[in-house]
Design a protein that fits this description.
The protein is mainly beta and about 290 residues long. The protein is built from four helices and 17 strands. Among the domains are: about 100 residues, Sandwich (HSP40/DNAj peptide-binding domain); about 80 residues, Urease metallochaperone UreE, N-terminal domain (HSP40/DNAj peptide-binding domain, Sandwich), CATH 2.60.260. The strands form seven sheets. A four-stranded mixed β-sheet has the order 10-11-17-14. Strands 1-9-8 form a three-stranded mixed β-sheet. The protein is elongated. One of its GO terms (molecular function) is unfolded protein binding.
């Protein structure tokens, strides 16, 4: 039996024990899996002679085909039980549905695709050992952290002022610890800069005291506009931009803000009649003068 076990990233970081109810086939406890009531009689199936299968012969044109199928009279059990001899609980089927609550432990550091095997807790059949139940871990997406191996990645939006002047910020981790870090004044953060905090990633499965790293991508949120006073103060602090050297022969153009998806979407339109309106159907140039090959 296989089941998908959906868990959060927090569960894979901290470990978790889940209680899951399953329904499975087990040997009937009343008849011990024989299918017969106390004092009842089990008879060998007369159709298959206890072999559980029958051989059907079919003729297809000049060919004769033999097909082995499950015996329809005993349903592949090899025996037949009269109605009055059947177990009152399993009705002669030898199996009953059983519901059990299992405790499934999610180990620290597990990842999507890892398997948790519960030996002997699966379906059971007469004269066959119980099967296993396999839970396949599937991680739900997290709102803050992305995982790759033992490393974690998060995106942190900061203002232009923070990027230029430094700041102190906090991170609430997956175990509810609050981490704090500081970018010193004068350490300019560029847009899409990537920083790393050692040892604050995911625990290593089997050795949870060892951890990966936490990576932070900084995304600068620029102001929509600036007042003249702000422009003046920024220019005073950073230096005014140098003006372009113009000769007077330049052609002035104007630009507008667009989305990147618009790049490559402009369709060229060629009006062939405009390009060739000076040519007539006979290949004559202007004034009706014909071209003659020499």
């Amino acid at each position: 039996m296989k089941h998908v076990l959906r868990v959060g990233l927090e569960d894979l970081y901290n470990g978790k024990t889940s209680r899951l109810a399953i329904t499975r086939d087990r040997k009937c406890g009343t008849c011990g899996g024989s299918g017969v009531r106390k004092g009842g009689v089990v008879r060998t199936c007369g159709t298959c002679n206890g072999r559980k299968v029958v051989v059907r012969v079919r003729q297809i044109g000049p060919m004769i085909q033999q097909v082995r199928t499950v015996c329809p009279d005993c349903n592949g059990t090899g025996v037949q039980i009269r109605e009055g001899d059947r177990c009152p609980d399993c009705k002669g089927k030898k199996l009953t549905k059983d519901r059990k609550v299992l405790e499934v432990y999610v180990e620290k550091g597990m990842k999507s695709g890892d398997k948790i095997v519960m030996r002997g807790e699966g379906n059971e059949e007469p004269d066959v050992a119980p099967g296993d139940i396999v839970f396949v871990v599937e991680q739900r997406e997290h709102d803050v952290f992305k995982r790759k191996g033992a490393d974690l990645l998060m995106v942190k939006k900061i203002s232009l002022s923070q990027a230029l002047c430094g700041f102190t910020e906090t991170i609430t981790h997956l175990d509810d610890r609050v981490l704090t870090y500081t970018v010193a004044p004068g350490s300019v953060i560029k847009d899409q800069s990537l920083m790393r905090i050692e040892g604050e990633g995911m625990p290593i499965k089997g050795d949870p005291l060892q951890k990966g790293n936490l990576f932070i991508v900084f995304k600068i949120v620029f102001p929509e506009s600036l007042s003249p006073d702000q422009v003046e103060r920024i220019a005073a602090a950073l230096g005014a931009p140098e003006p372009a050297t113009l000769t007077g022969d330049e052609e002035e153009v104007f630009m507008e803000e667009v989305e990147i998806e618009q790049f490559g979407q402009t369709k060229a339109s060629i009006n062939r009649s405009e390009h060739y309106d000076e040519d007539d159907e006979d290949g004559q140039g202007p004034g009706g003068v014909q071209c003659q090959q020499m």
